[in-house]
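User: I'm writing a tutorial on reading structure tokens. Could you give me a worked example: one chain, its sequence, then its tokens, then a sentence or two explaining what the tokens reveal?
Assistant: Sure. Here is the example chain.
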Amino acid sequence: MDFDNFLGTKDDRFSKLESSRIWPILMRKVYTWMALALTITGVVAYGISTSERLMLLLYGNTYTFWGLLIAELGIVFYLSLGIEKLSLTSATMWFILFALVNGLTLGWVFIIYTEASIAQTFFITAGTFATMAIIGSTTKKDLTKMGGILFMALIGLIIAGLVNMFFKSSKLDLIISGFGVFIFTGLTAWDAQKIKRLAMEATNLDENIQKIALLGSLTLYLDFINLFLKMLRFLGKRK
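And here are its predicted structure tokens:
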């Protein structure tokens, strides 16, 4: 029997060995970057809420607040579409900048809701996120089809949210938040599976691979933040 053919070529076996060694490192990077971004956002948001002057500057002027939201979208698109042209250092700095700007836009959370309910919602969100990420990373079922459906539902959710900005219906807002919890819970599992598959295909830790991992961190960060905000609508206690 030709054992080389049975087990694969030496190059194939070396590639598989390298992949089995590298993908756990990449996954740790993904979740470490995500945790760092969440920490930055939380610290900045809380800091903003403690300064009346900054609160007035950011939320007392509609143009300033919308400018920050547009900046967030710009950074996401810039990173997603231009990641190949950026160095890993530059991409990381843009990611950190996004987390910081997002913190500026989320300071209102600490003004409207009690700190105890924010903490409670955060830990519930973290538990839900971790559970779905583990499911997505370990299940043998292909979640691609489910992810496509959830992505289309997300587009519908965004449109509904924009429409409700004009109607300002509390009931519709509650419905949107309910669907949002379902959608982002499912997207967490889908994104976790997608990121792990990409990581398992890596045979080295070059800069391009690490930039892909950084984009994965951004995706999971957005899943977490959106899931947290939707859950806060139900679990948050107003001051």
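What the tokens reveal: The longest helix spans residues 10-49. The chain has ten helices and no strands.
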